[in-house]
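All the exercises in this workshop are built on plain-text protein records. Sequence and backbone structure share a record, each on its own labelled line. The question running through the whole workshop is how a given chain folds. The record below serves as our worked example for the rest of this section.
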Amino acid sequence: MTKKNFIKSMLSDCHSGEVSSKRVIGFIGFFALLIIMFINALYSKSITPSKELIDAIEYIVIAALFSTSVEKFAKPNTTNKDNEPEV
């Protein structure tokens, strides 16, 4: 499996196989936090972003990745209109 296929499968939805925007947002936010933490470890506190900004990115990442993990265990909505009784 190539790196491109691995990344695509990691970011895709388990039910439909399409790339999930929540997973993309979660991983971009995760990498942004990782870069911010790495830069702050190397430089002085004079370039540290505000705590509110870091907290906001952290909450967005948590919400995005939590919602994708909940969707993994939820049943897919596969109702077929042909099988539904008419009222």
